[in-house]
Amino acid sequence: AGVVIADQPLVTYAPLYRDEPGGGPVVQFDMKSAESIGLIKFDFLGLKTLDQLRDALILVQENWGVTIDLALIPDDDDATYHMLHQGDALGVFQLESSGMRDLLTRLKPSSMDDMVALVALYRPGPLQSGMTDEFVDRKHGRKAVSYPLPSLEPYLKETYGTVIYQEQVMQIAQVMAGYTLGEADLLRRAMGKKDKVEMERQKSRFASGAEAKGIAAALATEVFDNLAKFAEYGFNKSHSAAYGWISYQTAWLKAHYRPEYMAALMTIEAANTDKVLEYVLDCRRAGISVDAVCINRSFRAFTVPPGAERPVVDGKRVDTIRFGLAAVKNVGEGSIEAILQARKGAGGRFESAFDFFERVDWKRLNRRVVEGLVKAGAFDMFGHGRAALMDGLDAAITHGQRRAEERAAGQANLFAALGGGGIADFRWPTVQEWPLSVRLAYEKEVLGLYLSGHPMQAHARDVERFSTQGRTLSEARSLAGVDEVRLMGLVVDTRTVRTRRGDKMAFVKLEDQGAAIEIVFFAQAWARSQRAVESQEPILVTGEIEEPGEGDDVVKLKATTAEPLSEVRARTTREVRIEVLLDELKGDRLQRLHDILQSQRGACRSRLIVRSPGRFRTEWRLPNVLVDPSPGMEEQVATLLGRLDAVVLS
């Protein structure tokens, strides 16, 4: 917002109005007119990054007992610069774009001067003019650092002899041509506005001032022309310095207190699920576990659990971030307050899932809130399947509401004394747990992302079997240069456009558990592949990896065709083998397995292999059971047996 400031009531200088009923006064003049009568306009920009820094510092203080003043952190910290040299800047203010991360790996900033310059250099003007490359080459000694005059070294040394700030233009005009500060600011403005008449006047003024200082006319003209050219991409250093310092502060926190920093970042970005997914993957690459929402441990925001609550792997505590309740769809502030209040009344944790239903204030919660929590896995710690919780949800809510009414009527103690009306009276239904695909689909519905897994995890064998060299999407870049590449993943976004000829082409985002790539389908390829892309199952895409451009960390594949996984399997599979342990066939499981195979009829032979470790291994051909080797069949078997490796295709 532009805020106008004057030394007297504004109505003394300009007519005012209110932009809306109850709103504040607004000057009726536009910006330039207001400035022309002597008013000063300030632009105040709000940065959510400042809230994020505040939240991160609170988490650090809570977990480590350390109070940090970011104004006092060292600006020459090796760990921070080392992290940036690797391009590890996701979530770092101003530095997280792919192009900026590429520039970080080339520039390798080593001082605050470099950090300030980064913000000014990563803009279209410097990038397109070659100034950014010139800066990088001079910093690393590939090109010599030089100055138009020795007297300009104090003003250009920090930028290796290059001019990238507007303030440097003003300083050069002062030193070379004797400009006053006021005159130098007028020169800066004239250059920025590209006012030809004013520039001619300034050029004459610059030349005469340089001549008075004994500087050759040819050199003065060359320097002025270079400054005029610079004006096309010059940047204000004070702005760059403010942003560069905040960039460094966020990088410092990420380098030294990564879990706390990332938790605060994901809280701020909770509504942007694409960003949250990026940050979750970034955390996992750094060895930080991102845990699901927990009704006993989650708070409103993303949090970093104290050491005692973190899992232990190989004898070491694993850095952990826990999802916040506010990140669950339909869970609002009132519901969160009710949950936390009930948990506090339970002594800090609910004894069971039903203890939650008995204690919460149902005037502040409803079924949709609890349904979202179930789908997000918030009750998993109690050992009930999500399908059972969902199936018994209405009964549990009714029972919980009745108990609340009894307590309000003063009857709870009487029923408890008689041994009834408590938790023991309620039983969750016994139902088959959701298949992996359903569980993950619900997670994405309420969280905006897959958290406890990814649908492609069930297809690791398919990737090994059908993808080029068994490569996953995170390994796709290594296939650049291979004539024909096959890659497998799940479609998560599709955008179609019309070509100049009126044909449809498409840009498709393909994802697996580790990465995402962009698939480009030109018109003929799209006509062949549209049905597969819209099949809502994993697809196998054939095409060619495009050579990445500078700063482009998104792998792109130019597709020739795409095929649904079910059709790929049917085309390439002769036999379906079901491998089970003898103990897995207890009860009615053998009959249920038979029913699954009968319901998935197809053209492939089937074989049942039963093992009892240390005793026997037996195979039965099932000549009367011809099976469709579809992902759906495999998922049903996996759900029945509780593991993903029971089905083998050959």
Overall description:
By secondary structure, the chain is an alpha+beta fold. The chain has 5 domains: 42 residues, no CATH class; 189 residues, no CATH class; 157 residues, DNA polymerase, domain 1; 111 residues, Nucleic acid-binding proteins (OB fold (Dihydrolipoamide Acetyltransferase, E2P), Beta Barrel), CATH 2.40.50.140; 77 residues, no CATH class. Helix content is 44%, strand content 15%. It contains 27 helices and 17 strands. Strand 6 and strand 7 form a beta hairpin. The termini are far apart. The model has no long low-confidence stretch (mean pLDDT 89).
Which secondary structure elements does this structure contain, and how are they paired or packed?
Blueprint: E1 2-5, E2 16-18, E3 25-27, H1 31-36, E4 40-43, H2 48-64, H3 78-85, H4 98-107, H5 112-121, H6 124-129, H7 131-139, H8 153-156, H9 166-177, H10 181-193, H11 196-212, H12 217-230, H13 237-256, H14 258-268, H15 273-285, E5 289-291, E6 312-313, E7 316-317, E8 320-322, H16 333-345, H17 353-359, H18 367-376, H19 386-391, H20 393-408, H21 412-417, H22 436-447, H23 460-466, E9 485-498, E10 504-511, E11 516-521, H24 523-533, E12 539-545, E13 556-564, H25 565-572, E14 575-581, H26 589-599, E15 601-612, E16 616-621, H27 631-641, E17 647-649
Parallel strand pairs: 5-8, 11-13, 14-15
Antiparallel strand pairs: 1-4, 2-3, 6-7, 9-10, 9-12, 10-11, 12-13, 14-17, 15-16
Helix pairs in contact: 2-13, 2-14, 3-13, 5-13, 9-10, 11-12, 13-14, 14-15, 17-20, 18-22, 26-27
